[in-house]
Amino acid sequence: MSAVIIGPVFPYRGAISYCTVKLAEELTKELDVRIVSFSRQYPKRFYPGGDDVDATIAHLAPEGAIYSLDILNPLTWLREGLRLRRSNAGVIVLVWWIWIWALPYLTLLVIGRRGRPLVIQCHNISDKEPAWWKTKLANALFKRASALVVHSKAGAAEAVARLGVSAEAKMLTLFLPVLAIGGEPPARDEAKKALGLEGRDVALFFGHIRPFKGLDIALRAWKLMRRDATLLVVGEVWFSDEEHYRSLARDLGVASRVVFDFRFVPDAEVATVFAAADVVVAPYRHEAQSGVAMNAFHFGRPVIASAVGGIPEIIVPGENGDLVPPEDPEALANSIDAFFASSNRVLMELGARESARNYSWERYGSEVGHLIETLAAGRTRRGGAPAAAKPHSDRLADE
What we know:
The protein is of the alpha/beta class. It is 38% helix and 16% strand. It contains 13 helices and 13 strands. Helix 2 packs parallel to helix 3, helix 3 packs parallel to helix 4 (132-142) and helix 10 (291-298) crosses helix 12 (345-358). The longest helix has 21 residues, at 361-381. The radius of gyration is 21 Å and the shape is globular.
């Protein structure tokens, strides 16, 4: 049986590309998989960071991947739709994470689907910066799916609220698998020395710095902390400017305890950044699930995060991190102080590593592969009509 996966892969940078590559690797164990990716992923105005390509991971690009879809060239959508129409793919898998790909995806499906089952892997249900028209576009796509793969029970509930109770019958509720981005980490002391943080307690705020990520909340928490810890901020600033955060740190009187590294960190440096941290902070205002937390677990680092979206489904207070109310700098400060004063830090690091093992790609790929086989078998029995098969593993979200 064959499947086509449409989504970003290396050398496009970031967690979504990593996840698409890993999903393809897992499905290739049982299926003939073809990958269709992008010649241009975003209009520049919708990607306010630097380049969205990481040349250092170009050698990891999947063999045979086709980089054909240009977000600004509808002719490429039509051409790829015709290619899909002529292909022998038994199942179509769309990777979904942002509203701008709704229209290209819909165009592809109108031209090329031909009744084949459609699986949409939903990294998000709602957009990070939501608007009613983004919701309309996404819903138009979601309603065409034979199955939606979501990464938390919170995401599943959101999809049902938007699409109606009929969506429950085509929902596979899984988890966001571990992100093993960055290679082998150095020793903690060695990593701290490399970053000029010797002898300090270090909390890491990592990833694209966007309003919903709550860096301002973390800075306000630092003003309230009793512990003399350092906040290491690593990532590109989006939808604002670097001086906004530097100025806020100065105004709060915490600039001497905050290290800003406002840049995209290539994969080769990620391990050092996480290894230098004692804990990772994620004071998000909203989030479906946290790739940063999954990367932290890979490196054995506990996570202190806001109790929003699907994050409470992966963080167990006292075992692999802690949860605090959103928009609450005082609660965040108290949690970080308590962490650095705790005698259970080593146990929490072990708990983080255990979480990484629990949320494995092997387990995830097996479930998605079973879903694809079920849908394809149903289509064959129905003479070409896609089956609305109930996934067998909603139990995974409860484990």
